[in-house]
Design goal:
It contains 21 helices and 15 strands. The protein is α/β, with parallel strands linked by helices. Among the domains are: about 90 residues, Gyrase A, domain 2 (2-Layer Sandwich), CATH 3.30.1360.70; about 140 residues, Isoleucyl-tRNA Synthetase, Domain 1, CATH 1.10.730; about 100 residues, no CATH class. Strands 7-6-5-11-12 form a five-stranded parallel beta sheet. Strands 1-2-4-3 form a four-stranded antiparallel beta sheet. The protein has a three-stranded antiparallel beta sheet with strand order 8-9-10. Strand 3 and strand 4 form a beta hairpin. The longest helix is centred in the last third of the chain and has 24 residues. The radius of gyration is 30 Å and the shape is globular.
Length: about 600
């Protein structure tokens, strides 16, 4: 069954190799079952070998045979392999494989040979990489990003990096909501604060934007243009409708601003948009989150895409008119009620522009479109997918991932999400308190669709209980050891790994070998949190080994083999942390 050694210093894929052996045995034992998926898992107990397969149990029903008997037949038909030391049958029919030492440690040379490319995927069978678009954050540019936006930013950025590393052609996109009512509300809010600076106060609407940043923008306008945009408060109030409806009053203020300012309204609107969008860009860049495309909602109107999208739905029979408005029959596609796409005053709704935007994404040739939305947008999914289907697009090419809410905790108590000014806690404030690395890593400590409790005290602590500190410390420890050695790191790729014989060393090698498959599975499942969990486990395996075994021993052969293992571990830590946007310090 086993020979003396596996090929030296090759990128040996043990799982794939064992699967090929089982596939060959299957062809002899059950020729008609060639399409059965062969699953190989890492046993929880080291005594059960390196890999286990339940293939015999999968075949039992079709072959109408006891799975243990099938396992015995499969083992007898396994081709000989120089990488396999032992094959055993356990329990009801599990087939357990124990690898030869050289096969178990071969991953070290593979990591060192591939370097930063270890784990990187490539398009299958020489095909062109699939084009994916990941649209995330896309917060209205009406105020600072808050801690909830931060989680969406960290998740979207990590997901995009993970997908690109897995072998996809990824475009990162931010959809700028620079048209519509919310921007008008921000503009009129700043204008009202501007009027206050000239003793022309208009009662500020409770549903306007309240933050101090609005006053700052008003002061900027005054500094740049003096009283150019001042109108008497009486003139503004005279334009307002007599109603107690707060939303109608707010709309009245917007109309008053547009009527009184005329062409100058565009300046106020443009100023607040540019200020908030610039601040948003800077905040995200400082957070290590970058976008390839900033797509303007306004461009959808200027190019007629919104009108064309609604006209196409109307032509296909999915639009009807009621009370002067145009409605999309979204209930026919699983939505809870039909949706307005054009109001009775002729103004298109946000939903109409969203339809046009998603159709535009497909027109740009993306094979898959991935939207990252807040959890409160769950009900929006069926109507968007329904509109795409009704437009003749393949709605299956749109995937939506939802990011749940974030709660801050301090001293074991839930912290207020408001600052002294009565605003929410901003992403910038969180970053200033705990640092970018803690933010990026802590945001990944839960699946995106699970609520996240962010422990501020833990994120700032320098202890092994702090997961990001624990992982970064593993990297720094390795850097320290390599610095003490001060040898030729490049030469370690050709080191004889035979001295690696302890179970902790084999366990660390096994963890390194999991990295490429983890990348593919995490990319498939849109699950960058799995990478954070993996890095914690890898750091734990390294710390356990480091604390149990000296690396810089006197014997050269053992010393260099252990240094090679440490260097390979550092490389995988670097590869994983970089995908999560977390730095890799050389000292701590």
């Amino acid at each position: 069954m086993a020979a003396s050694s596996a090929p030296k210093h090759t990128a040996f894929d043990a799982r794939q190799h064992l699967a090929s052996l089982l596939r060959a045995a299957l062809a002899s034992v059950a020729p008609g079952q060639g399409l059965v998926e062969i699953i190989l898992e890492r046993p929880k107990q080291a005594s059960h070998g390196d890999f286990a397969s339940n293939l015999a149990m999968q075949l039992a029903r079709e072959l109408k045979t006891n799975p243990r008997q099938i396992a015995e037949r499969l083992v007898r038909e396994l081709p000989p392999s120089p990488a396999v030391a032992k094959v055993e049958i356990a329990g009801a029919g599990f087939i357990n494989f124990t690898l030869m030492p050289a096969a178990r440690t071969a991953v070290v040379a593979a990591v060192l040979a591939a370097g930063h490319g270890f784990g990187r995927g490539t398009p299958r069978h020489g095909k062109t990489a699939q084009r994916l678009q990941v649209e995330f954050v896309s917060a209205n540019p009406t105020g600072p990003l808050h801690v909830g936006h931060g989680r969406g930013a960290a998740y979207g950025a990590s997901l995009a990096s993970l997908l690109a590393f897995a072998g996809y052609d990824v475009t990162r996109e931010y959809y700028v909501n620079d048209a519509g009512r919310q921007m008008d509300i921000l503009a009129v809010s700043a204008w009202l604060r501007y009027l206050e600076l000239f003793d022309e106060p208009v009662p500020f609407p409770p549903n306007g934007y309240q933050g101090g940043y609005v006053r700052e923008m008003a002061e900027q306008v005054k500094a740049a243009h003096g009283d150019r945009y001042v109108h008497p408060a009486e003139a503004v109030l005279a334009c307002l409708p007599e109603t107690e409806d707060l939303e109608a009053k707010l709309d009245g203020l917007i109309l008053a601003g547009k009527d009184l300012l005329g062409e100058d309204w565009a300046y106020i609107h443009g100023h607040v948009l540019n200020e908030q969008l610039t601040d948003c860009r800077a905040d995200l860049e400082e957070f290590g989150v970058h976008f390839d495309v900033w797509f303007s909602e306004r461009s959808l109107y200027e190019t007629g895409m919104v009108a064309r999208a609604v006209a196409a739905l109307e032509k296909s029979g999915h639009i009807y008119e009621q009370d002067g408005a145009k409605w999309f029959s979204s209930t026919a596609f699983g939505d809870e009620k039909d949706r307005v796409v054009q109001r009775d005053n002729g103004i298109y709704t946000y939903f109409a522009s969203d339809i046009a935007y998603h159709l535009n994404k497909f027109e740009r040739g993306f094979d898959k479109v991935i939207d990252v939305w807040g959890a409160d947008h769950h009900g929006y999914i069926p109507r968007v997918k329904g509109a795409l289907a009704a437009s003749g697009a393949d709605a299956g090419r749109l995937d939506v991932t939802l990011v749940q809410f974030v709660s801050l905790f301090r001293n074991g108590q839930k912290a207020s999400m408001s600052t002294r000014s009565g605003e929410y806690v901003t992403l910038r404030e969180l970053r200033e308190e705990v640092g970018n690395d803690a933010c990026r890593f802590f945001y990944m400590l839960r699946k995106c669709d699970q609520a996240l409790d962010f422990d501020l005290d833990l994120a700032k602590s320098e202890s092994n209980d702090n997961p990001v500190y624990y992982v970064q410390y593993a990297h720094a420890r390795i850097c320290s050891v390599l610095a003490q050695w001060d040898g030729d790191q490049a030469a370690l790729g050709a080191t004889d790994l035979a001295p690696l014989q302890h179970e902790r060393e084999y366990a660390l090698c096994a963890r390194l070998a999991e990295f490429p498959e983890l990348i593919q599975v995490a990319a498939r499942d849109y699950a960058p949190h799995a990478l954070a969990f993996y890095l914690k486990d890898l750091a734990g395996d390294f710390h356990g080994w480091y604390n149990a075994e000296r690396v810089l021993v006197d014997g050269r052969a053992t010393r260099e083999a252990r240094l090679a293992l440490a260097l390979a571990t550092r490389q995988v830590l670097q590869n994983g942390l970089s995908l999560l946007g977390v730095s890799q310090p050389v000292s701590m």
